[in-house]
Design brief:
Blueprint lengths: L1 E5 L16 H11 L3 E3 L6 H10 E4 L2 E4 L7 E3 L1 E10 L2 E10 L3 H13 L11 E2 L3 H11 L4 E4 L19 H5 L8 E3 L6 H4 L9 E3 L14 E6 L4 H9 L3 H5 L7 E8 L10 E3 L4 E3 L1 H6 L15 H8 L13 E4 L3 H8 L8 H14 L3 H6 L12 H11 L4 E3 L8 E3 L3 H9 L4
Parallel strand pairs: 1-2, 2-5, 6-8, 10-11, 13-16
Antiparallel strand pairs: 1-12, 3-4, 6-7, 7-9, 12-13, 14-15, 17-18
Helix pairs in contact: 11-12, 11-14
Length: 428
């Protein structure tokens, strides 16, 4: 059966994260959005780990709320920040780690505490150790830990980041590369961009939300076909769904990755290059013409994801390997409604009322509405502009202003002229 998984989020104990990120609220949001398996996030944090222990109960290596009737299952997951020296450079990378059980998490937590690492100050702790050392520690505890490079192209904290990353997976993980089964695209890249780097054919592509608040859950996610809902099934599907494995006919006994759900990468904070304070934004070709230097302040530009992909690519733009998984780009439903109502904030009361009414009236969930619902079936449930917005997102008929140097890009569905036209002409 198809299952939607978001394997990377945070809790209220991570910096710059919403205080509403409680387990019960996360589960409720997943029900509305259509997520079946969600990360706990932040399992190294003592207080959050206490909540996990007290509020969740194990079921097939996944976890469910004890006192809350929900079909949502949690997978033990966290993001770790590693800062260390290697090859004469300071490396800064983020890794998603998933654990097979609470006992394994407790042993890892004890190791970190015993060795003087501060795991109380932040849900995403900063560890002064290499990726190789981390892998050794984790796999010595339990070989069924999963280590997944997070948002691999982000400039400041990523395996391939322009500021402090590496040029290959092996350079980062060494002998443990064979146990790295997947990577995360991040908000500023999509599978098509990653297909340009042939090395990545050895790894399963995953997309996760990295949500710091409830509304951002499942802004990116994964759709697996699963014969069994368990940690073992998730582990095996991730292990056996790279492009190269699919080309060789290697399959998981539990199912496969059907597709990933993607943010428009231009909306990500680091899609293009530039300096936010200088108001300078360049695409890769412009950056090369300026030799990577800001024409205003004459300092090095923050090189973004598009440039970095281009730098490591050994395939042309538009390459699609024959056994690559599909993907779908989406704009969240509340953002579509906000623009349809000409309201700036997706969190406004009017937007949320329309959003919740549409979910309730449709008898469905957000991702089903965005991806699968016949638009004719929605015409008596919401405004014509909302239906037209969903249609335009599906058709990729959008106005895109790319993000750069930590500034989110802007995705516009309507311009003033076509919005006026939509008000006058029936959609169906």
């Amino acid at each position: 059966m198809p299952q939607i998984l978001d394997l990377h989020i945070h809790s209220k104990y991570s910096r710059a994260c919403s205080k509403n990120l409680e387990l019960e609220n996360i589960a409720h949001t997943c029900e509305i959005k259509g997520v079946d398996v969600i990360a706990t996030g932040d399992f190294t944090h003592p207080q959050w780990f206490s909540d996990i222990n007290n509020k969740l109960i194990e079921e097939n290596g996944l976890y469910k709320l004890k006192n809350y009737n929900s079909k949502v299952r949690f997978i033990l997951s966290t993001e770790l920040a590693l800062i260390y020296k290697q090859g004469g450079k300071t490396r800064r990378i983020h890794l998603v780690v998933m654990a097979p059980n609470i006992k394994a998490v407790a042993r890892f937590q004890k190791y970190l505490s015993d060795h003087g690492f501060n795991i109380k100050s932040d849900g995403r702790p900063i560890l002064g150790m290499s990726a190789i050392m981390l892998c050794k520690i984790l796999f010595d505890i339990d070989e069924r830990f999963m280590v997944i490079p997070a948002h691999i192209w982000t400039p400041w904290f990523a395996v391939f980041g322009s500021k402090s990353g590496f040029d290959s997976m092996f350079e980062c993980f060494g002998e443990f590369t064979k146990y790295i089964y997947a990577y995360e695209t991040g908000l500023s890249s999509d599978p098509e961009m990653n297909w340009r780097v042939s090395e990545l054919d050895d790894f399963t592509i995953l997309s996760n939300s990295d949500a710091h608040s409830l509304p951002n859950i499942a802004r990116e996610a994964n759709v697996f076909e699963m014969s069994e809902i368990s940690y073992d099934a998730i582990y095996d599907i991730i292990k056996n769904n790279s492009i190269n494995q699919r080309a060789k006919g290697i399959k998981s006994q539990y199912g496969e990755v059907l597709y990933t759900i993607e943010f428009y990468p231009e909306e990500g904070m680091y899609h293009y290059d530039g300096h936010r304070d200088c108001g300078v934004r360049f695409n890769p070709a412009e950056t090369k013409r300026h030799k990577g230097i800001c024409p205003k302040c004459h300092k090095k530009l923050t090189v973004g994801v598009s440039y970095r992909v281009d730098e490591l690519a050994d395939r042309p733009i538009g390459t699609k390997p024959s056994k690559a998984c599909e993907y779908k780009k989406l704009v969240e439903l509340d953002k579509i409604i906000a623009e349809s109502l000409n309201i700036k904030s997706r969190n406004s009361q009017k937007v949320q009322i329309e959003y919740n009414n549409l979910i309730k009236k449709s008898g469905s969930h957000e991702l089903d509405i965005l991806i699968n619902k016949n638009l004719n079936d929605l015409k008596d449930l919401t405004l014509p502009e909302v239906i037209e917005g969903i249609k335009r997102v599906r058709e990729k008929n959008l106005i895109i202003d790319p993000g750069f140097d930590g500034k989110y890009g802007v995705i516009k569905i309507f311009n003033l002229m076509n919005k006026r036209a939509n008000r006058q002409v029936p959609l169906f």
